[in-house]
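The protein record filed here:
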Amino acid sequence: MKTIRHFFTLLLLITAVGVNAKKQPAIYGIGFYNLENLFDTCHDEGKRDNDFMPDGSYQWTATRYAHKLANMSKVLADMGTDLLPEVGCAVIGLAEVENDRVLTDLVAQQPLRSRNYQYVHIEGPDKRGIDCALLYNPKLFKVQRATLLPYKPEWPKDSAFKTRGFLTVEGVLAKQPVTIIVCHWPSRFSDSPYRERAALQVKEIKDSLLACHPKTKVMIMGDMNDDPTNKSMLEVLRALPNMQDVNDGDMYNPWYNTLTKEGVGTLSYKGAWNLFDQIVLSPNMLNHKDKKRQKGLTFMKNQIFRRDYLLNGEGKYKGTPMRTFAGGKWLDGYSDHLPVVVYLTKTR
């Protein structure tokens, strides 16, 4: 009799462990990184890329290009590994890549090749020749459709204004429909209304997607050239800092509190931090006590990805991003921006 009781006790324990194992959440990393001028050494017709040639102002030789590729691939492979040491990020949005050639060379670097990263890129109209792109691990993210939706100037006087469009990639992650919109909004050399215009257009894209497919998880990411507190993000895109305030038509922006409460950012200017690099999420990716529990992929945490090798170690710029060039001098660094990552969970 005692033997039978022991058998059933053991059976119950095995069953409980099995059930708990099935309920353990899977974790997925989603990243964004502005690569700060990933150019090759060749001239692209119609583009202002002459500085990035061997006889250009940056003396952009094959050696320097090879160093840049190695540096970028190291960072991209490291992103997400704090929680996912074996696989890193499933998807990473990129800004400031020149063309397909640099992306082909980038994913051929060993740290990325070993994970078989692929890319999505559509040539855009930017006069400098820099575009947005998306890296993805095909074991984790399946691309279904990609489009580049153009930035449309509001005023006739700006009809010749050419800048990055909005790379919109639809796919499947963790058996969930996911759409990622990768942005690089007009620079700070342009006034705020130009970025507000970008925010309005991206909101219209997002709203149209969710109107047709309410279950789609939408993430808008990029170098917005504005902080989470600026009008373009907070008022126009409606990327809000508190989950309980996020309703249909809004987005959740975890980076607002990172900047305002923690005082840290992704790029430094005149001794102060900005947080232009952001990933914001649709309401159907949020779980908290005041809202109906969402199914599928949900937000877990966000992270500015920092490593000592990404930062200046000494001098007046100590602790700020170690960029490729500074003061006309080649530093063999990384970027003037730090990468960002959000982690998503899904119960198995």
In short: The CA atoms of residues 51 and 57 lie 5 Å apart.
